[in-house]
């Protein structure tokens, strides 16, 4: 039987890597980067005619989206853990409570936690941290990434299932997508992630 996991090299060109499970917000950011890098590699494979475009394009978009969701949740977790603050938002009863992050609505996650992230980045800047990090430009870039992904897949279900929870077809059946645009978007997202991670360098 074919093995999914092997700790031994299969051939001379094989490489063995260490795969970690969740170990805090930093490891979640690494996982997030991995999904977006995978999307960029897959888009390049399509452009070089090494894989079928129709089969892989939805997965490329979903991998980017999933990576961005993980990165956003990692930022929220990091801000909460390191600065001991939480974002507040109305709960289902309309009462202000700690904002939830256990859902997949990108725009909601961003809108409920953006102010908190801005506050922490402003605090860091006011205390002389990350002097070479343009937080305003970064926040605008990250917000634009969120907006673009929200238009395609607001709740993380559109590209995973043929219909939503109410049985309505997702995306109305189809959309036209430039693979070069997907590759560039993935690369821009990787750059955005990297700038945040390197802000303390």
What does this 3D model show about the protein?
By secondary structure, this protein is an all-alpha fold. It has one domain. The protein is built from five helices and two strands; from the N terminus they run H-H-E-E-H-H-H. The protein has a two-stranded antiparallel ribbon with strand order 1-2. The longest helix is centred in the middle third of the chain and has 31 residues, at 53-83. The chain is globular, with a radius of gyration of 19 Å. 22% of the residues are buried. The mean pLDDT is 86.
Strand percentage lies at under 5%
Mean pLDDT: 86
Helix content: 55-70%
Q: How many distinct domains?
A: 1
Radius of gyration: 19 Å
Number of helices: 5
Euclidean distance between termini CA atoms: 47 Å
Element-level helix/strand string: HHEEHHH
Large-scale geometry: globular
Oligomeric assembly? single chain
Number of strands: 2
Q: Low-confidence parts lasting 5 or more residues at pLDDT below 50? A: none
Helix vs. strand class: mainly alpha
How are the strands ordered across the major sheet? Answer: 1-2
Q: How would a crystallographer describe the biggest sheet?
A: 2 strands, antiparallel
């Amino acid at each position: 039987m074919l093995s999914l996991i092997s700790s031994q090299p299969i051939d001379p060109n094989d490489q063995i890597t260490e795969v970690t499970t969740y170990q805090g917000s930093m490891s979640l950011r690494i996982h997030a980067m991995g999904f977006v890098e995978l999307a960029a590699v897959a888009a390049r494979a399509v452009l070089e005619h090494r894989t079928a475009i129709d089969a892989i394009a939805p997965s490329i978009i979903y991998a980017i989206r999933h990576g961005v969701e993980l990165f956003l949740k990692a930022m929220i977790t990091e801000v909460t853990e390191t600065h001991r603050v939480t974002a507040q938002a109305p709960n289902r009863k309309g009462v202000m409570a700690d904002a939830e992050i256990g859902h997949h609505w990108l725009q909601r996650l961003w809108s409920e936690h953006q102010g908190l992230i801005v506050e922490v980045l402003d605090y860091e800047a006011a205390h002389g941290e990350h002097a070479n990090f343009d937080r305003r430009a970064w926040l605008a870039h990250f917000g634009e990434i969120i907006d673009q992904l929200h238009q395609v897949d607001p709740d993380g279900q559109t590209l995973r299932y043929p219909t939503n929870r109410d049985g309505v077809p997702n995306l109305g059946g189809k959309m036209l997508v430039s693979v070069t645009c997907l590759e560039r978007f993935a690369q821009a997202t990787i750059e955005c992630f990297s700038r945040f991670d390197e802000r303390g360098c």
